[in-house]
Design a protein that fits this description.
By secondary structure, this protein is α+β, with helices and mostly antiparallel strands. The protein contains 5 helices and 14 strands.
């Protein structure tokens, strides 16, 4: 009887220990929403440099590699994945999900492949911050997570405007499957603040807007949508997807009468996108 009692107590303590460990370690200390990016225009820096940055404050991979420039034959395709940020080395495919393929470019630029790919040989740089947004905008059937869009842009683009246009085309054609994200995209001449969301459960697409940081300004993105009014006639300072207003109306986020504010329509009343 004593042995049975002791075994019962030991088993109970073991189970409680497992439960305690599960509670303690069930969520990471850092979350993807912790990232911050700072942008600097060329007239706001001491030496005329344009800058962007990125503190990647999350539980992501620590390895990095320099991916060389390459040339490809016609009809070559490139695989698009989900889960690459949690791999342990470049060839690791553990827990990665193949989302689909797209045509490969005939030639690509060398780039620095970090958890969120960040810089190419043409001095095109990209920072990232998660801005979440309304949950009803997400569509997991979309092909692209934000890190894969960054990778493709760095492989194929030389300027911030070119990268924004390419990302917009990819999202429209293949769909955006991530939560709301901000990319801060810089080239040697200018830096842009770009935000993208899904288009909702009924369509595999996306909606986005971008604002150029004035040359004599510094900008900060810290986990909340910041783009407000859009003057799309001013092509030097604003860019947006063709559906930027129509999706807001369709989803009931904007009545078409009050002044349109991108952050209000697509991120909701607070950071988590709740009313």
């Amino acid at each position: 009887m004593n042995r049975l009692f002791i075994l019962t107590i030991a088993f109970t303590c073991y189970c409680c220990n497992l439960l305690a460990q599960e509670i303690e370690y069930s969520r990471p200390v850092n979350t993807p929403e912790s990232c911050t990016s700072i942008m600097v225009g060329k007239k706001a820096s001491a030496d005329g440099s344009v800058m962007t940055s990125h503190t990647c404050d999350g539980n992501y991979r620590t390895w990095m590699e320099i991916v060389p420039a390459a040339r490809y034959e016609r009809d070559t395709t490139v695989a698009i994945y989900n889960g690459r940020m949690h791999t342990e080395y470049p060839a690791d495919r553990t827990n990665m999900e193949l989302k689909g393929t797209i045509p490969e470019a005939r030639s690509t630029f060398q780039f620095l492949n970090t958890s969120y790919p960040c810089l190419n040989e043409k001095q095109l740089g990209i920072g990232e911050t998660t801005i979440s947004g309304r949950k009803e905008l997400q569509n997991q059937k979309g092909m692209f997570m934000i890190e894969e869009l960054e990778k493709i842009a760095l492989q194929r683009c030389t300027t911030a405007r070119e990268a924004i246009r390419l990302i917009g085309q990819l999202v429209a054609e293949y769909g955006y499957g991530d939560s709301g994200e901000c990319l801060t995209i810089a080239d040697p001449n200018e830096v842009w603040h770009f935000e993208v969301f899904g288009e909702g459960p009924d369509k595999i697409g996306g909606v986005w807007a971008a604002v150029r940081i004035p040359d004599d300004h510094v900008g900060v993105s810290a986990n909340i949508s910041r783009i407000s009014t859009l003057d799309l006639k001013d092509k030097d300072r604003y860019m947006a997807s063709e559906n930027v207003f129509s999706v807001a109306k369709k989803m009931g986020f904007w009545n078409g009468k009050e002044p349109f504010r991108f952050w209000k329509a697509y991120s909701g009343g607070n950071y988590f996108g709740e009313p």
